[in-house]
Amino acid sequence: MHRVTLDTRLDDCPLGRVTAAHDVTLTTPYWNLSPETGQCDLWVEASSPGRSQLEAGIRALRDADGVRRFELKWKRGSHATAHVVLEETVAIETVMANGGAVIAPFRDRDGWERWHLGFAEPDAAAATLDSLDRRYELTVVEQTPLTDSGAAAVFRNFHEAATLLDGCERLTETEARVLRTAVEHGYYETPRGESLASLGDRCGVSDVAISKTLRRAERKLLGAAVSALAGLDADSDPPAARPGDGG
Fold it and tell me: Measured between alpha carbons, how far is 81 from 29 in angstroms, rounded to an integer?
């Protein structure tokens, strides 16, 4: 197996056109292509910096050319979920024609769509990229044989990887910024390159506030990591002996 990650601008895809014109990010975790109708059935997660940007993005997607069905399922604050049916794009048709598959959610932001594709053979991946490059603007981010242990581990341990990602997504913007600053400036090094007081100065808050923010961020990330480790440990345990087994 061969995995390809690429960024592309799809002028025939409503998702790309909407994110090029509006401050909204569209993530598609689930989708299905119907060979009978030639349409793509999507579940789209929309997020924006604020409610007004989200509303504008949702309206634009609902009314976009190529959208055959739009049903808003859930909306709260600056996040929403919608069921969308689109006409098949040339890009999807090209991937399928070469025996490829989308192996992870794809995401649209600023007019660019990130895809993670899987192919049985590198030659099929190369043929797909060559065809897409003639039709679209694209950048290949990464190509990885899935025989590579690190790449394959993500798929074998999808639930654990999702648990870690969930921990990251639960961080508030402030928690993520403070944690990133702490790591970048050596707060977690031995000896420490940054104290709570100096870290607070960098972030413009008191050392007490920094300490509380770091503890909240650490609790979320460590909780997710411990949960993921528990799943990895369970997967690595040998199967329990069945009644009647020897030994």
Answer: 11
Most distant CA pair in the chain, distance: 67
- What is the value of pTM for the model shown? 0.68
CA distance 207 to 210: 5
Supply 241's token pair: 């002996």
Give the pLDDT of residue 247. Answer: 42
Identity of the residue numbered 32: N
pLDDT digits (tens, 9 = 90+) for 80-133: 999 999 988 899 889 989 999 888 788 999 999 999 898 988 899 999 999 999
What are the b/e assignments for 123-150, b being 16+ CB within 10 Å?
ebbebbbebbeeebebeeeebbebeeee
Asked whether the beta carbons of 122 and 129 are under 8 A apart, the reply is no
> CA-CA-CA-CA torsion for 8, 49, 44, 219, nearest 10 degrees?
100
Q: Which domains does the chain have, with CATH numbers?
A: 2-145 (no CATH), 150-235 (1.10.10)
Dist CA 201 CA 232 (whole Å): 39
CA triplet 85, 87, 90: central angle to 5 degrees? Answer: 135
Residue type (1 letter), 211: S
CB burial of 201-240 (b: ≥16 within 10 Å; e: otherwise) equals: eebeeeeeebeebbebbeebbeebeeebeebeeeeeeeee
The tokens describing 32, both together, are: 């299905």
Tokens of 212: 């509380």
Tokens of 149: 């242990």
